[in-house]
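Holo model, flavin-adenine dinucleotide. Inputs:
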Amino acid sequence: MYDFDYHKPTTVADAVALLAADPDAKAVSGGHTLIPALKHRLNKPTSLVDLSGIAEMRGIRREGNALIIGAFTRHAEVASSEVVQAAIPVLSFMAAHIGDNQVRNRGTIGGSVSNNDPAADYPAAVLGLGAIVHTSSRKIPADEFFLGMFTTALEPDELLVAIEFPIPEKAGYAKMKNPASRYVMAGALVSKGPAGVRVAINGAASCVFRQAEMEAALAANWSPEAVAGIQQPADDLNSDIHGSAEYRAHLVTVMAKRAVVNAG
Ligand SMILES: Cc1cc2nc3c(=O)[nH]c(=O)nc-3n(C[C@H](O)[C@H](O)[C@H](O)COP(=O)(O)OP(=O)(O)OC[C@H]3O[C@@H](n4cnc5c(N)ncnc54)[C@H](O)[C@@H]3O)c2cc1C
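Output:
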């Protein structure tokens, strides 16, 4: 690790001011991605702005037909929350299948969504449920938030503060996980609700994306058979030691079918 300064603000405004004052400062949430990167000297921030002391970034609440989850909410809290289980059970299911106990007790939803790892779970929930990302300065619809591999619409001095999920009529998720890390090889989150019929695919490409052909098929006929014959082109999919692009293309269809079954 390189040397860095450490700050622990107690308000979003103070955290943003610290980030704005130093272009090489980085926010740290659960630290499960950032700290290993620092240990391997892959990142060299001059200061870390720890978000763990900011009360307004924590908590889970229902507001009308939406669920609001604070950015500093750990995966284990989402998995065990009765409020989440009652309103959007697929979110608890997803959180319960992220990594292992250590990861779920440290990693946060805000850190995961801000990081936008192609193989992460939560980006599929944000896009597949048509969520709205609340930041320190604006509200960003999911369709405009994820820009590419590890890239989002967040500015360097902008913090993800909370995520607003509209409560769907039904939603399901399925992933083929890497057996070592539980990161996603290919996954699908399907939903039907206020945001329409949506299918978000994660793990397969450089960034989470919507599968328009599957959305049209499910809008006409909500059943696993509706997506069974739809083949995702392999051209732009990831190919690595864990699986080829063709294998991932096959998984997209299988995971979409399973997600519809899981949605009921
Ligand atoms: C062994 C292992 C297995 C894992 N398996 C899975 C898995 O199966 N599925 C999965 O989805 N994930 C997995 N993860 C990732 C983990 O779940 C965390 O979600 C991830 O590390 C990011 O969350 P964090 O809170 O740790 O963020 P941090 O590491 O603290 O931050 C990550 C990045 O986001 C930025 N950031 C953090 N919070 C904010 C914010 N509020 N606003 C703006 N920027 C912010 C930071 O500056 C940093 O660039 C795994 C991690 C490990 C170590």
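The first helix runs from residue 12 to 21. The chain has a mean pLDDT of 97.
Archived with the compound record.
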